[in-house]
Amino acid sequence: MMRDPAMLLLDEPMAGVNPSLVREIGERLVTIASEGVTIVLIEHQMDLISRLCDHVIVMADGKKMIEGTFDFVAGNKDVQNAYMGSRK
Which residues are CB-neighbours of 6 under 8 A, at least 6 positions away? Predict the structure, then answer.
């Protein structure tokens, strides 16, 4: 961050992180984004994704499954089945 990047790429930065620290890191990422830095985030913590991301792309089996707002992709039955399983 010392060189004023235009983009920040993060691959699961919250993996194994204490929940209180996740909130702090999330708040810092919101601040960074508000300063005009594009953040590309690979993450499985949906509460964080919902707070941080304007645009979400869901991948499954190495391919793009769907993209759109968090609410749009989270409400998609294919996404729910792929990541949470289906009810039988």
Answer: 36, 37, 38
